[in-house]
Amino acid sequence: MVRIAHISDSHLGNTLFQLVERKEDVRKCLRKAVRMAMRQSPDILVHTGDLFDNPLPSMEDLNFAMELFKSVQDKVEVFLVHGNHDIPFGYHHIQSPITSLETAGVVKSTGKSDYKLHEVDIDGKKTEIHLISWTRERSFQRKLNDIIPETNPAFLFAHHIPVPKERLPIHFNYYGCGHAHSFWLDEEYDIGRPGSTCYVNWNKEIGGTKKLIVIDSDKQGNEYTTEQINDIREFKFPQAQITGMGPDEVNSYLKKILEKLSPKKDGSIIIVRVNGTIDSETENGLDRVKILQHAESKLNSLFVHIEPNWECYGPRDIRLNQPLNIETSIRDYVEQTEEKGLDELMDFLGRIMGV
Hints:
Blueprint: E1 2-7, H1 21-38, E2 44-47, H2 59-70, E3 77-80, H3 97-103, E4 115-122, E5 125-132, H4 137-146, E6 154-158, E7 174-176, E8 184-186, E9 191-193, H5 202-205, E10 211-218, E11 221-228, E12 235-236, E13 239-241, H6 247-260, E14 269-278, H7 280-285, H8 288-299, E15 303-312, H9 326-337, H10 342-353
Parallel strand pairs: 1-2, 2-3, 5-6, 6-7, 7-9, 12-14, 13-14, 14-15
Antiparallel strand pairs: 1-10, 4-5, 8-9, 10-11
Helix pairs in contact: 6-8, 9-10
């Protein structure tokens, strides 16, 4: 039996909202994911790309990755593929920082190409690990069609698999990929994606999960174990609905939503998604600075963000059928704006006009 631990998309160097603190967070998240994987005693550890957020990482991030994988290389075979964030200038794999790690001998990858076959001896039996780094879709499909493994089990790992699962060849015991940052596992088709090891693009990752995937594979098939991967920093994603509210009401409402939060740790990141339909007066009167200052003082958070997910309809054209007729104009306005209180308005109009 072969045991493989599969992680992906760590994006070392990423600074969510340009927060410097996130650089260290991202390193800690990767270290945590690797330690989680090593507790499963795998024969093989695979990272399916975007190890770095930038193809020209800082020396601190490069050295961190070097030391991290060096610390486990005597216990497990480590394989990496180049993700699109790892490769500079299109598809120049030779200039990827992954190549530096491979040259140092701490990981195995695809070298100067976008494809490489590795053979691993596990309990005296050969197992093929096929790696496809980030490449053009046509190139990927051509390679996929040409590969016929000679061992069972055999595995294919790629940063992205741009082929419907139903059209994947049945040669491989497991297909592993990355690129998207949310967990997905289809045990029927034996294809999996762990998601990222930390929050990178929160608006695409909200509602999803991130998991370590462990594959136990032999000639009879696969058994899967998954374990939740959480960012080392606490994130909160409250929602707010502000349709029809005025400026003062919105400002008060958002403060109350934030006050109800109870983060378990100091230094949390709070992202409030504000939904609804409002007018331009409300949008212009929303005092974000005071709301954010209020939240940070109450919650002792690292960062609070208000995400404007609302629609603003702005000033609307009102057609008055008889502009000189006050009563008719009021009725036209209320009907077209769908305002309430027509009876009260007409009663007030009668009183001031002495009717």
